[in-house]
Write a structure and sequence with these properties.
Layout: H1 14-21, H2 33-48, E1 56-58, E2 66-67, E3 74-83, H3 95-112, E4 116-127, H4 132-148, E5 152-161, E6 166-175, E7 191-195, H5 200-210, H6 217-223, H7 229-237, E8 243-246, H8 251-262, E9 265-269, H9 282-287, E10 294-298, H10 303-313, E11 318-325, E12 330-334, E13 337-340
Parallel strand pairs: 4-5, 9-12
Antiparallel strand pairs: 1-2, 3-6, 4-6, 7-10, 7-11, 8-10, 9-11, 12-13
Amino acid sequence: MRPSGLPDTAGLKPRAMLYVLRGEPQAAMNQRVADIGERALIERIHSRLPAPPSWVVIGIGDDAAVIEPERNLLEVVTTDALVEGVHFDRAFVSASDIGHKALAVNLSDLAAMGAAPRAAVLSLIVPGSMSVVDIDALVDSMSALARRSRLAIVGGNIAASPGPLIVDVTATGSVHRRRILSRSGARPGDDMYVSGSIGTAAAGLRRLRADNKSVAPESIRYLRPEPRTKLGMLLGRNRVSRACIDLSDGFAAAVRQIADASGVGAIIDADALPIEPKSVSLHEALEGGEDYELLFAVAPKHKRRLVALQRDLGEVPIRRVGRFTGDRVLSVELRGVREELPAGFQHFLQPQ
């Protein structure tokens, strides 16, 4: 028997139970976006975001946000969209996971440039049938990651979608001119390093497709990637790296993109690759995307700087996995045998 005065939550799902215990009308749990309209939806989103910092001169509610630039620093701008049916399947990806990931993928791009996160705008293209509860969950998880990352969400846009849910984020960061990381700075003889593990998110997606209630570590990695913000900032600030990229499209694609931009080749030591879990094949680890780790080049003379960086970084593992060369050949070496590096992921070129 429940204590007197508390609402009856028997038979409710956990998220619905939370709404009732917060004192919101039970009818609100069944509201759709189409039931409340654009203005009410914008106000609801606004109310769930933290107050903006002092450098936001004009925030949500005007035609555009106005922010003060950081003195003596450059602005870094990135954008990424998550499209239902392309980047996520709502059968096993919750609205909360979508909100977290939509911001995380942008933070990962900023990390790859060595930038500190600063501001973001959110564009939501929403089907009218989507529940208000799910919009709340999406915004709450994005807001929580923004708060941890010291990033302010300063504006955005709402539009109706006749089909899929689309969550589009544009984020900005700041970086000193001499600390910018790019894809074009690798040189022959540089060592290649990668953070964390590879193949994990691909394994997580495969597991979720087989069991959409999976809570295995690899499933969580796919659903809620953690951008390597601190690592990226330290690589630039300490001038450890000359080139960096995130692994959004997979390890093989990242190596190719750095090699193309820098005019170098690469040899990958397959035995050194941090593949997790162990059930992941080499091919899947090389081509599977969405790990959002950082791959970066370090000149041998800067190895001591990297050791010092690792002490400041803490628990994030970093491993040497190969080297960049001057011959423009991209290969993987496994027990003394070399093969061509796979092409990696590209939108529009994948088998249908």
